[in-house]
Amino acid sequence: MEIIALAVQAANVLVPDCVGKAVKAFGDSTGLLWGPSSAQQFWFQSPKEHVFQYLLALIVVALFYSVSKNFRVNAKAALSAKGAGWSTKCPINTLIAYILLGCFLLQVYVKGSRSQPFIQLGWLLMPCHLTTLTWVYIFLHDKPQHYGRNCYLASLLIDWFWAPISAVIAPDWSDHKFAFEPTVFYVHHGLLLLLPWYYAIRYHTMPLSRSHLLHSMWVPMLISFGLFTPYALLTGLNVNYMLYPPPLKGLPAVFTSPFYRFPFVAVQSILNVFDNLIIRGVADVFCWVMNGMKRAKRKVA
Question: Which UniProt keywords apply (predicted)?
Answer without folding.
Answer: Membrane, Transmembrane, Transmembrane helix
